[in-house]
Inverse folding.
């Protein structure tokens, strides 16, 4: 049997690392610049951290998408399907409510959801996540959205769009759910099985159904935004006001629902057309109440996450993407006899300590083969040495682009190389 990667997981190969690194570097720069500290929580937690947080009507629960297992002590553990729950567990664990508020955190890394695999939907994927804990102000929501917008800009995206909505306060939600139950109950058996389950647990989530039959049934119903109470409506108006004054483009989306249950008031997503059905690059919102639900003090919070794989997919669509080309070695060392093998490795080690990228051949090469190896490595220059060069204490330094070659003394090689690289 040939071993393969598990469906829905991917290897991030050396040639892709620079593009991945550029995303986290952009996040570090933008989010760090706003006072967020990086946090790295564990990859698994006790299952109840997620069960309590994501809510019983979340797809993660209804469609059993969490990777849950028992450890040897019989305790139920779960691979994290998102960052927010674990970060709030950590916030409580470390008494971060005693720090000056608000506390801003950001995180990045792999997450795990046992979903149906398709473009943009994987079983191991990666997010950049931002959370602001300790403010109920609309300003905190607006700032979070501005940071999301600008982080994606710093990644190189230009065509992403924010969709802004509100899921209301708990009372609004209860009233809206009652309205949906009343409207949908007579047609319940015509809904898809998942929507029937959602209708029972949290009717709001039926609006998120992609099923065409479901969509036809809900097409004429009022959306959450049309039934907001005055407090949530005022909060949303303030968020809009700040975003306009900071020139963050957004569209109001009356139907925004989100796939996790913990949201209150502000809910938003950022979309990108042209990356298939899964056009949401990211999403988030306010989640006052979650920390209390996890056993902490009643502290309001807001935040978001974006999917790194989807952002890379979007970047590939943009001409501006200009995905960073992987760095190429400056020099490839070719030993023309056995004695030169060790000398070549010594040279490479010496130059690497001076911050040059250098590769070498591990065995004697004839010049033709050696130069082919050098070309394949992507190097700009090659250094060759055989018996004659050894007696003179030199290397043949060859420019692999122009073919120009000159003999350079061993101790002058570093300077000659730097000078030539600078003059390119
Ligand atoms: P989410 O909407 O579940 O929110 O995920 C955010 C983003 O993660 C999605 O928009 C998508 O880009 C990416 N994503 C989610 N699932 C997958 C998957 N299976 N494969 C590839 N990418 C995926 C959250 O996770 C919330 N914790 C966000 C948040 C933070 N809310 C408040 N604070």
């Amino acid at each position: 049997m040939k071993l393969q990667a598990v469906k829905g997981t991917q290897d991030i190969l050396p040639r892709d690392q620079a593009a991945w690194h550029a995303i986290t570097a952009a996040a570090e720069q933008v989010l760090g610049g706003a006072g967020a500290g990086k946090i790295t929580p564990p990859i698994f937690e006790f299952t109840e951290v997620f069960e309590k947080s994501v809510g019983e009507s979340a797809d993660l629960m209804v469609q059993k998408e969490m990777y849950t297992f028992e450890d040897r002590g019989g305790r139920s553990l779960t691979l994290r399907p998102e960052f927010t729950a674990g970060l709030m567990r950590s916030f409580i664990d470390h008494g971060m409510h005693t720090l000056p508020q608000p506390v801003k955190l950001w995180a990045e890394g792999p997450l795990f959801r046992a979903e149906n695999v398709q473009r943009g939907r994987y079983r191991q994927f990666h997010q950049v996540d931002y959370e602001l804990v300790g403010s109920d102000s609309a300003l905190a929501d607006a700032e979070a959205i501005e940071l999301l917008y600008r982080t994606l800009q710093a990644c190189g995206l230009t065509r992403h769009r924010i969709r802004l909505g509100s899921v209301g306060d708990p009372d609004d939600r209860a009233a809206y759910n009652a309205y949906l139950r009343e409207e949908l109950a007579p047609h319940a058996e015509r809904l898809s099985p998942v929507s029937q389950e959602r209708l029972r647990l949290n009717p709001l989530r039926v609006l998120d159904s992609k099923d065409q039959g479901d969509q036809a049934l809900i097409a004429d119903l009022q959306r959450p935004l049309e039934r907001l109470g005055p407090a949530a409506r005022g909060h949303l108006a303030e968020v809009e006001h700040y975003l306009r004054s900071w020139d963050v483009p957004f569209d109001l989306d009356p139907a925004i629902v989100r796939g996790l249950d913990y949201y209150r008031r502000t809910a938003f997503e950022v979309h990108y057309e042209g990356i298939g059905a899964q056009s949401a690059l990211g999403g988030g919102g306010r989640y006052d109440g979650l920390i209390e639900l996890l056993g902490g003090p009643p502290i309001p919070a807001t935040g978001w996450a974006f999917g790194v794989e989807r952002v890379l997919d979007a970047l590939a669509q943009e001409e501006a993407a200009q995905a960073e080309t992987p760095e190429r070695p400056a020099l490839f060392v070719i030993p023309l006899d056995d004695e030169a093998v060790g000398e070549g490795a010594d040279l490479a080690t010496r130059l690497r300590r001076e911050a040059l990228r250098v590769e070498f051949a591990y065995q004697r090469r004839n010049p033709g083969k050696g130069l082919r190896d050098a070309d394949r490595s992507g190097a700009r220059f090659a250094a060759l040495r055989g018996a004659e060069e050894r007696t003179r204490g030199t290397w043949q330094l060859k420019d692999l682009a122009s073919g120009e070659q000159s003999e350079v003394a061993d101790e002058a090689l570093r300077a000659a190389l730097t000078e030539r690289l600078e003059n390119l």
Summary: Residues 46 and 72 are 13 Å apart (CA to CA). The chain has a mean pLDDT of 93.
